[in-house]
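Record type: monomer structure entry
Structure origin: computed from sequence
Chain ID: A
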Amino acid sequence: SGAAVIFLNASPERQSMKTLFNVSLIVAAASLLAGFALVAAFSKKAIAPYVRNMQLQKEFITDAGHELKTPLTSISTSADVLKMENGDNEWVDNIQKQTVRMSKLVKNLVMLSRLDEGMPLPDKSDFSLSDAAWEAAEPFEMRAKAQGKSYSQSIAPDLDMTGDMAAVQQLISILLDNTFKYSDDGGEIRLSVYAHKNKVIEVYNTCPPDSLVDIDRFFDRFYRADKSRTYDGGTGIGLAIARAIVQALGGSINAETADGKSIVFRAVI
């Protein structure tokens, strides 16, 4: 019929391509492993100066805090003596107020630095979270009445935990103090302490919508949503300390808003 049948033996070419593919895989894997080895070998050396600088900064804050305590104590004592000898004076009163503020700031910075350095909370023990929460929240009931704000609390009974009771009470005080400072006039404030797998501390408050800008940055040090806000008696690192305390206790904390008119701080320990 005039048809032709041709057979082509392509085995050598196929074998060559297979060999090239296998060699390429081996070279790629070896290069990847070599890259990881080089990164592992030199990364610590490369970032060592940055780690060292961060460590020096933390040590500086701690050391400076301890050094500042003595002159602050001397200034406070001198102001007290001046007030005793000369009576009430607006300048002396201002010195006393600013000294108290500076002492509080130094104390908070030292504590925050120690927590950043990974130093554990010193007084770890078994305690009643329910009783600790009641004790920490008690002063805020009178504060709510004085400021004309609505305050309520729901603390589940018989809640026990292991940790630093003073640190937990400080956490509750920081969160409540923050709500009183930034809630709206006649606003609503609620404290809830309960157990849901873990121990949960929630603080809710109503607030002006413009105070919820950059809510994710609320735990940054010295952050203020309103840059024009004047001094309000705080140090600007309260929420940063609250986060450090929760992390030292092995938990997490976050802030969220559901309607843009209120905020909930939730610490899970």
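Annotation 1: The first helix runs from residue 11 to 86.
Annotation 2: The chain has a mean pLDDT of 83.
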